Amino acid sequence: MSGITSTLSMAKTAISAQQSGLNITGHNIANVNNPDFSVQHADQKSRIPALYGGFLFGTGVDMDQIRQSVDKLLEQRLTNEVSTQASFEEQESYMKVLEGFFDINSETNINSVIKEFWSSWHDLSNNPQGSSERVAVLENGEILATSFESTILNMDALSQDISLDINAAIIQVNSITSQIAELNRSISGSELGKTANDLRDQRNRLLKELGGLIDISKYEHSDGSV
User: Fold this and answer.
1) Measured in whole angstroms, how far is the alpha carbon of residue 138 from the centre of its chain?
2) Are 62 and 13 in contact (CB under 8 A)?
3) Where are the beta strands (DSSP E) in 24-173?
4) CB 204: neighbour CB atoms within 10 A?
5) Per-residue model confidence as pLDDT tens for the chain (226 residues)
6) Core-most of 22, 40, 161, 171, by most CB within 10 Å?
7) Residue 221's CB: how many other CB atoms inside 10 A?
8) How far apart are CA 136 and CA 120, in angstroms?
9) pLDDT for position 2
10) Who contacts 61 (Cβ-Cβ below 8 Å, separation ≥6)?
11) Could you give the angle at the alpha carbon of 16 between the alpha carbons of 12 and 20, nearest 5°?
12) Rounded distance between C-alpha atoms, residue 198 and residue 219, angstroms
């Protein structure tokens, strides 16, 4: 083992390892405004020592792995909560529309119309021969029937809107799952002792997007696919 040769060799590998670290730092800085990006770190390891004169001498440092700063348990919980939040938001939006059909502050809401209808019957029972009371019962009955019909039509329209939204969501789900499947193949083929960090970030983004459309559960295989 030549002293100057080994020193130069260690210096060369050390510079190469530090240069790789600078490249990763630059990659992190470049993605500072990317919400789907996970910060990456350069893991280094000592090179295999060399035996010389009965002693093991260190031979420098190498890059070992480019590691993501990701808490997988937290990522799983976030994906689950995205599904829950999206579900509540969708329910809320449709319930607001449905609530509008039964607006208690409106003079034409069903409760008010029913109240007027039975009130006119009460007036008629007190004066069975009264023509105005009979007309009031007839008119309020027509108003009530129209109100029921209008509400039914509105609810049918809402049901159709929901069906259209579901069909559109199915198309999105099929597209997203196809992209995830393609990323799974790319990640499995790339991760031979290494980690395809940027591809994993893309897949995590798609999983969150999918979780916003349907309830999902995920787990990772040993080959890196989910």
Assistant:
1) 54
2) yes
3) 40-46, 50-52, 55-57, 61-68
4) 22
5) 556 777 787 888 888 888 888 888 888 898 888 888 888 888 778 888 777 777 777 777 877 777 887 777 777 788 778 888 888 888 899 888 888 887 777 766 788 888 889 999 999 999 988 899 899 999 999 999 998 998 899 899 999 999 999 999 999 999 999 999 999 999 988 877 778 888 999 998 999 899 889 888 888 888 888 9
6) 40
7) 9
8) 6
9) 55
10) 10, 13, 14, 17, 44, 45, 46, 47
11) 170
12) 19
Three-class DSSP category at 66: strand
Please give the Cα distance from 154 to 149 (Å, whole number): 9
Give residue for tokens 């019962």.
Answer: 137
Q: Which amino acid, 92?
A: E
Q: Which two tokens mark 176?
A: 């997203």
- Give me the helix-helix angle, 72-101 and 197-211, nearest 10°: 30
- Total residue length of the chain: 226
Give, in order, the Cα–Cα distances in Å from 187 to each of 197, 199, 208, 215: 9, 7, 18, 24
Distance CA 1, CA 219 (A): 49
